[in-house]
Amino acid sequence: MSAPAKTQAMETLIEAHAIELKLPTVRRRFRALAEEALREQQTPVAYLAALLEAEMAERSERRERRRLLEARFPVMKRLEDFRFADNPKVSQAAIAALAECSWIDDRESVILIGESGTGKTMLATALAVCACQQGRRVRFTTLAGLANELQEAESKRELARVVARYARTELVVLDELGYLALPEGAAELVFQVISERNERASLIVTTNLPFGEWTKVFPDARLAKAVVDRITHRAHIIETGTESWRFRHGIQRKSKGAAR
Known about the structure:
five-stranded parallel β-sheet
């Protein structure tokens, strides 16, 4: 057998092994990396290390993409997208520390409290994306969305399964607490999820209401107090203020357009 034929046979065998071992990056890149190794006069060990490193890197990227998809973010936001100059009330150092996600290991929570347009949801999403990038399971939902999901699960006799799924998720983002009062029966269902996660897993909550006004969302005063007690226990509370930078930027764009 000629040398080219032997090489082709070995390449075919490598492809077959890579398929069997579920190594798609090895299958796709072993030829190109082999040519690069020859050009740079690398040792066989260096070539093998580069090939396996490429497989591990792409596998990690696929896992991250899957976690980001499973989190169900309505809009993807990252910390570099947040302009701290627009909201100097938010401490960049505090957010950077939270981005390291050690608070998730400690089963602590984050509460972002402020008026609409002050960056609460953006920061919550960005911190949750950091958690995904660190290999953690995340789920994003609005309070209304969670309430609807739980009520639907209850009607199908699947409530225990859904509550258990939320309990297993390392980080749950509960967005928009305060914009809508929970419908009858839903407050108790939401409390089940919060109670199951208490001191077991972390939450990020965004709200436009002071804690004393959570009865607007949870009409039963005792239930509202129990929710506040559980969510604020071992929580990092970040105030985003009252001035809407979103509104301010809208006015600025309108002014620029009128000046042209």
